[in-house]
Amino acid sequence: EAGVAQSPRYKIIEKRQSVAFWCNPISGHATLYWYQQILGQGPKLLIQFQNNGVVDDSQLPKDRFSAERLKGVDSTLKIQPAKLEDSAVYLCASSAIGGAERQYFGPGTRLTVT
Amino acid sequence: GENVEQHPSTLSVQEGDSAVIKCTYSDSASNYFPWYKQELGKRPQLIIDIRSNVGEKKDQRIAVTLNKTAKHFSLHITETQPEDSAVYFCAASNAGNMLTFGGGTRLMVKP
After folding, report:
1. What are the b/e assignments for A9-44, b being 16+ CB within 10 Å?
2. How confident is the prediction for chain A on average, in pLDDT?
3. Which of A33, A104, A105, A110 is most worth mutating to test chain B (most B CB atoms within 10 A of its CB)?
4. Which tens digit of pLDDT belongs to each residue from A57-83?
5. Closest Cα partner for B45 from B54, B56, B34?
6. Cβ contact B44–A105 (<8 Å)
7. Which residue of A has its CA nearest to B51?
């Protein structure tokens, strides 16, 4: 079974630029999550999708972050404009069960904002 | 919202010894408690989880215990091996189905 795929793996941008990350979940997993992991901290949930609908986006900084999952499969997370404090690893996870259970993570995208 | 505290932040043990990591949570409605292992530069991997209707769960050398009254849960690793060295994260899911992670414990197993 293929795991969660993410791209790119690394990205370096200057502040105020925009960036987009892509995630393809495990086949058949209806629930998809985006997390932000700052160095030395645990992952922090940004947004959760069930199929193509948003379940929770209470911790997503909506003035600069956006995410979509139009066809209920892959998803994109965008930051525009980026700030220095956005430097982090952005992790995508998926679950077959839903809710918060049995989440499987992708390799992440390491973003550096200079 | 939910708040998860994890201790210790670093733990060093000799190979073959046991390791215990403890977490506390704030939301009494939380009902799902997974543990993740993250090696340097790698993705978090689910190693064991427990639901609130169970007090203890074991899988080979790892076990998790849950005390709902005290709102704390622990990860126990027995007969530690060098390959157990990693950062371990606990997490809790509240009624809103949002997973909140602890700050992590860096476990170092010395050969």
Report:
1. eebebeeeeebebebbbbeebbbbbbbbbeeeebbb
2. 94
3. A105
4. 999 999 999 999 988 899 999 999 999
5. B34
6. yes
7. A101
Q: Is the pLDDT of residue B31 over 70?
A: yes
Any CB–CB contact under 8 A between B23 and chain A? no
DSSP output for A10-44: EEEE-TT--EEEEEE--TT--EEEEEEE-TTS--E
Residue-wise pLDDT tens digits, B82-108: 999 999 999 999 766 789 999 999 999
Mean pLDDT by 10 residues, chain A (114 residues): 90 98 94 95 95 91 95 94 97 87 93 98
Size of interface A-B (CB pairs under 8 A): 57
Residue to substitute from A33, A35, A36, A37, interface B, most B β-carbons within 10 A: A37
Cross-chain CB nearest to B96 (options A56, A103, A105): A56
